[in-house]
Design brief:
3 helices; about 110 residues; four-stranded mixed beta sheet
Length: about 110
């Protein structure tokens, strides 16, 4: 198992085994990150990874998770943007006992 050196924001350079890291690759825009839990402070660190870094990590046996961007990013929405007043109105609605019923009737087609 390969030893890999990574940098924790708080602790500086740390040594990890390949099983202590994970590569995440987006199949839609080919971006990638790697993540690890610092062995010193136990915080999770996420770092962007250039293609050559991904190649090195995968060659060292780091597991890879592939993912896709959410379909909602492609949706087109009509209507005006949500305003601060809309948020305040929603907040007030949530303070009523029948907020869910009111909300459900507002969103029924």
């Amino acid at each position: 198992m390969a030893l890999i050196r990574a940098t924790c924001t708080d602790c500086g350079d740390v040594e990890l085994r390949s099983r202590d890291l994970k590569v995440r690759m987006c199949q839609d825009n080919e971006s990638a990150t790697y993540l690890f839990r610092c062995p010193v402070c136990r915080m999770i660190e996420v770092r962007p990874a250039e293609p050559h870094v991904v190649d090195v990590l995968l060659a060292a046996g780091v597991p890879c998770v592939e993912w896709h961007l959410p379909a909602e990013l492609e949706e087109r929405h009509g209507g005006s943007p949500i305003t601060h007043d809309d948020v305040l109105d929603f907040h007030e609605l949530l303070s009523t006992p029948d907020w869910f019923v009111t909300l459900a009737t507002m969103t029924n087609p």
